[in-house]
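Entry for the shared binder. Reason: the reviewer on the internal report wants the predicted structure included alongside the sequence.
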Amino acid sequence: MKHIQYQTQGTCSVLIDVTADDNDIIQQVYFLGGCNGNLQGICRLVTGQKIDDVISKLDGIRCGDKYTSCPDQLCRALKELKG
C-alpha cells in the first residue's frame, strides 16, 4: 500500500489524505477543509480508479481565477504518491 498526506496550496482545502494499492488503484481519499459536498463526490468518483486515469482527467483544473483547484491538488498528491 502507498499513502500520502499532501498539504494543499491555493485552495480552501488544506490537506488531502490518499491511499492506493501496489497496482496504483486508489483505495481511499479524504480532504480536510474545502467544499464538503463537492469533495465527497470527488472522493467517491476516484476511489477504485487508477491513479493515471484520475490524473489524465483532473490535472490542470482551475477554481475561478485561482491557478489551481482541489481536483488539481489531488493530482499533485497522486503524482507525488507515484514517485
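Summary line for the report: The chain has a mean pLDDT of 97.
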